[in-house]
Amino acid sequence: GHFEDGRIVLDEQRLSDQELREVDKVFVVACGTAYHSGLLAKYAIEHWTRLPVEVELASEFRYRDPVLDRSTLVVAISQSGETADTLEAVRHAKEQKAKVLAVCNTNGSQIPRECDAVLYTRAGPEIGVASTKTFLAQITANYLVGLALAQARGTKYPDEVEHEYRQLEAMPELVSHVLAGIDSVAQLAKQFASSSAVLFLGRHVGYPVALEGALKLKELAYMHAEGFAAGELKHGPIALIEDDLPVIVVMPSPKNAAMLHSKLLSNIREIQARGAVTIVIAEEGDDTVRPYADHLIEIPAVSTLYQPLLSTIPLQVFAAGVAQARGYDVDKPRNLAKSVTVE
């Protein structure tokens, strides 16, 4: 996508503004890492368009007879464009007359061919089995879909749409800034490579990031890892906390208006009091978290919705570092394939 004459233009996206205006609900279907990008899409699309958004694993979608019709937009996310469960979800949605938009990285693949429209992420070939750069590209593409919907429906003024687009445009430079200071994360990975498990906590957009961080550690390092919404800690997961257990926390901005920062700070104190080692990803300049972070990873300050594009990177590097310290090939994890073409 690009910005032209005061408007977002989505290349190859063949749905008209009128068709987008007719949408009254959105379903996002995907698998694995793409599913986590879809969870983030929900926050952005609902915020910008005020449309209800459901996010579902493609492997579960068609088996519960979801309520779809001509005014439903289904967004199908797949790096390869060949994911079997996502393809079947697309076919089910088409049978119900829903409009289907593919977010895909592979030109000419099956899923885009069967959809009404496609937004290519253009991230280039991803050789490693575990999705990393395509995850960030999917988040970006999903946000562009949300902005295009907001633009067509008039739920955001043109200058507001442009403001959001410019923030997306600034992300590559900020990603480079994070990568420039990533050595400390690689050292942390070596330190915790012998751990038996790692927990990940987040709130709001930090929750899908926690899920993705845990998935990467499972995929690459074959380590038990779980991501939790931090508000659920007392509903079971806190029983797992023990001495020296590493817990990685994705911290929201202290400027967040929903008091999420203070609530997550309280969660960190709870787990630290029970012996956990806290590894905290926080905004640069957030001094309130320092007393409770055994290890602090700082990222640039950005608006809430854009934080996942930065907070994900240390988690990817951490997973790769742990895997390498354990002697595993990060590009060819066992039992996994780049494209899952069977159900």
Automatic annotation (TrEMBL):
Superkingdom of this protein's organism: Bacteria
NCBIfam families tied to this protein: glmS, PRK00331.1
Substrates-to-products reaction catalysed: D-fructose 6-phosphate + L-glutamine = D-glucosamine 6-phosphate + L-glutamate
Entry EC number(s): 2.6.1.16
InterPro entries named in the record: GFAT, GlmS/AgaS_SIS, GlmS/FrlB_SIS, SIS_dom, SIS_dom_sf
Keyword vocabulary terms for this entry: Aminotransferase, Repeat, Transferase
Pfam families reported for this sequence: SIS
GO molecular function (one): glutamine-fructose-6-phosphate transaminase (isomerizing) activity
Protein name: Glutamine--fructose-6-phosphate aminotransferase [isomerizing]
Keyword 4Fe-4S: no
UniProt GO BP: fructose 6-phosphate metabolic process; protein N-linked glycosylation; UDP-N-acetylglucosamine metabolic process
Positions of the SIS domain: 16-155, 188-333
One GO CC annotation: cytosol
EC category: transferase
